[in-house]
Amino acid sequence: MSKVIILLSIVGLLIPDLFLSSCIHVDKKQGKDIQLKAKPNVILFVSDDHGKDALGCYGNSVIQTPNLDQLASEGMLFNNAYCTSASCAASRSVILTGKYGHATGSYGHVHDYHHFSTFGDVKSLPVLMENEGYHTARIGKYHVAPESVYHFQEVLEADPRNTVQMAEQCEKVLNADSPFFLYFCTDDPHRGYPFKPERWDLPNSFGNKEEGYAGVETKVYDPKDVIVPEFLPDTKQSREEIAQYYQSISRIDQGFGKLMSMLKEAGKWDNTIVIYISDNGMAFPGAKTTVYEPGIQLPCIIKDPFSKLVGGENDAMISWVDLAPSILDMVGITYNIEDFHGKSFKNVVEKGETEGWNQIFASHTFHEITMYYPMRVVRFNNYKLIWNIASRIEYPFASDLWASSTWQGVYRSKSEYYGNRKMKDYLYRPEFELYDLSVDPWEVDNLATKRKCHDILASMKYKLKAFQRETNDPWIIMWDHDSSMQGTGVNL
Predict the structure, then answer these.
(1) Domain ranges of the chain
(2) What is the CATH topology of the domain spanning 40-355?
(3) DSSP β-bridge partners for residue 421
(4) Which fold, 372-478?
(5) What's the chain look like in SS3?
(6) How confident is the prediction for the chain on average, in pLDDT?
(7) Residue 111: its pLDDT value, please?
(8) How many CA atoms lie less than 13 Å away from 363 in the CB half-sphere?
(9) Quick check: 26 pLDDT over 80?
(10) Are 141 and 187 in contact (CB under 8 A)?
(11) pTM (2 d.p.)
């Protein structure tokens, strides 16, 4: 034995704590690094105005979405996933905070003069994940404020209409040593500028260009082949716009496929949770900005590499307010349940549970600041109640939806019907709308005034009031001037 080893042994016997504490320090640090690297990565892919109507895995036999269909075959497809507000900024605030917009000040759009920003003390998903050692990055549409609340460590730049280019810009993030949270948000298939065409009967482009986009194969659809949902008018204008909408979605699919290929090349496929959702339904009157099913019931596909449930469907009612706590739970980050309005659906993804997932709420107040029409919703089992708080005024339009050739074609022809709903019923809505979705999925037969449904209506109203009280909804004042949630009206 060498003199050095003998000396070290003697020192170790005399002062063992020195050696013990040193070893523990190194092991703890190494252990933490190893534990952090083992944590799953997360990709949250959010499209803009994409409804369930336009995905192969949800039953559309015309549109070409092979990459998203592949994700559904390798993950779980949700049939009852809901946003809380069918408006871009309001919905995205909920996605990233796990709280309803009426409780965070995110009442509507954030850009330009609309200026609805989230309260500064709200903790968002990217900030919480960064605090636990995750590298957070975003690319594409942001549409939330302030940056201090929705902070990402890295902001990547690319054309948000070219998802292939967007994917390519994410290479360094996908190859990072630390676990990452990538927030990938397209501008497709949102309506494209200009929202008002030169001629009223021309279809909107939905971001499509004749010359196409670099690296993207243009998929063109014949208007006669598209599937027109029942809530839309089956007209020349509607079909032409749906064809453009489909084309924009096929561009999303190609970029999504590119991103997944890169993820596999980086060796991260087996350790990455991939979630595909949209912020709200298709940008057509009757869907976006409404709380009808086409506006708020959305695509949701989740691939969890640690779940044995592959290629299945699930009927649990989940909501975008559940996303933040669910992601934290799925990656093993401890959080305070009371900090969120939503709850984790980790067991739904990993075990296929549906019990207790039979109720969702929706809360819409503004779209543009000029489009004030607060609505509160509860769906419980197959019954759905809509409270139109501003029912005494005409239903307002988002500027791009009013200018759409789909709407203008019906409006200018003075048609009695818009899709399966009378024009007068679309524009002038009763205070309460109650539907049984099991027999009336398109929400046409309002049961609110029918005597046989009196008890159901009362029960649903009770649920709605309780929801508003639990989530600090200022609009609870509209129930019999209930001022329990109101401020003092003075500066203290």
Answers:
(1) 40-355, 372-478
(2) Alkaline Phosphatase, subunit A (3.40.720)
(3) 418
(4) Arylsulfatase, C-terminal domain (3.30.1120)
(5) CCHHHHHHHHHHHHCHHHHHHHHHHHHHHHHHHHHHHHCCEEEEEEECCCCHHHCHHHCCCCCCCHHHHHHHHHCEEEEEEECCCCCHHHHHHHHHHCCCHHHHCCCCCCCCCCCCCCCCCCCCHHHHHHHCCCEEEEEECCCCCCCCCCCCCEEECCCCCCHHHHHHCCHHHHCCCCCEEEEEECCCCCCCCCCCCCCCCCCCCCCCCCCCCCCCCCCCCCHHHCCCCCCCCCCHHHHHHHHHHHHHHHHHHHHHHHHHHHHHHCCCHHHEEEEEEECCCCCCCCCCCCCCHHHHEECEEEECCCCCCCCEEEEEEEEHHHHHHHHHHHCCCCCCHHHCCCCCCHHHHHHCCCCCCCEEEEEEEECCCCCEEEEEEEEECCEEEEEECCCCCCCCCCHHHHCCHHHHHHHHCCCCEECCEEHHHHHCCCCEEEEECCCCCCCCCCCCCCHHHHHHHHHHHHHHHHHHHHCCCHHHHHCCCCCCCCCCCCCC
(6) 92
(7) 87
(8) 28
(9) no
(10) yes
(11) 0.91
Strands 432-436 and 383-388: antiparallel
pLDDT (tens digit, 9 = 90+) per residue, 166-214?
Answer: 999 999 999 999 999 999 999 999 999 988 888 999 999 999 999 999 9
Residue-level length of the chain: 492
pLDDT digits (tens, 9 = 90+) for 216-269: 999 999 999 999 999 999 999 999 999 999 999 999 999 999 999 999 999 999
CA distance 490 to 203: 51
The model's confidence at residue 416, banded by pLDDT at 50, 70 and 90, is: very high
Annotated active-site residue in 88, 170, 185, 300? 88
Q: Is 300 a catalytic residue?
A: no
